[in-house]
Amino acid sequence: NLLARQYGPRGSFTFTSQSPGEHQICLHLESIRFALFYDGKLAIHLDMQLGEHTNDYTELAANDKLTLLHLRIQQLVEQVEKIQKEQEYQRWREERFRQTSESTNQRVLWWFILQTFILVATGIWQMQHLKSFFKAKKLV
């Protein structure tokens, strides 16, 4: 668990993941006593922000007392990190595509060799069969 909190009938939280990947959100209702006040209804509002526009830099600047220059540098550093992650992903995809292409090319080559062998073997067998046929009929 990265975040576990208990709330009363109302609550809100903000969570920023520091690691990429798949995350799961689990909500658990421990008591129904709050539901009695609301006619047995439970409302959950889930607002998720994903991607590059999730950081509120004005709030960050106010909390950390950053100058405009420091704030802009931090934005640029985060953009560079995202570009690097995207480049690594694209390299991984390119490598995987290259492996798939090489595997496919190798299979095509072996299929060609097998077809050629079968064609040559069938031709030799037909020549031998026709030769013995003509000898049996005394045409040669």
What does this 3D model show about the protein?
It is found in: Endoplasmic reticulum membrane; Membrane. By secondary structure, this protein is an all-alpha fold. The chain has helices at 33-37, 57-64, 68-136. The longest helix has 69 residues, at 68-136. The model has no long low-confidence stretch (mean pLDDT 81).
Secondary structure elements and pairings:
Layout: H1 33-37, H2 57-64, H3 68-136
Span between termini: 89 Å
Class based on secondary structure composition and strand pairing: mainly alpha
Main sheet, how many strands, which sense, barrel?
A: none
- Over the alpha carbons, how many angstroms does the gyration radius reach? 35 Å
Question: Unreliable segments (pLDDT under 50, ≥5 consecutive)?
Answer: none
Figure out the total of helices.
3
Q: What proportion strand?
A: under 5%
Number of strands: 0
User: Roughly what is the average pLDDT, rounded to an integer?
Assistant: 81
Order of helices and strands: HHH
| Shape assignment | elongated
Helix-residue proportion: 55-70%
Features:
mainly alpha; elongated; 3 helices; Emp24-like; transmembrane; 140 residues
Summarize the structure.
With 140 residues, the chain is mainly α. The protein has helices at residues 33-37, 57-64, 68-136. Its main location: endoplasmic reticulum.
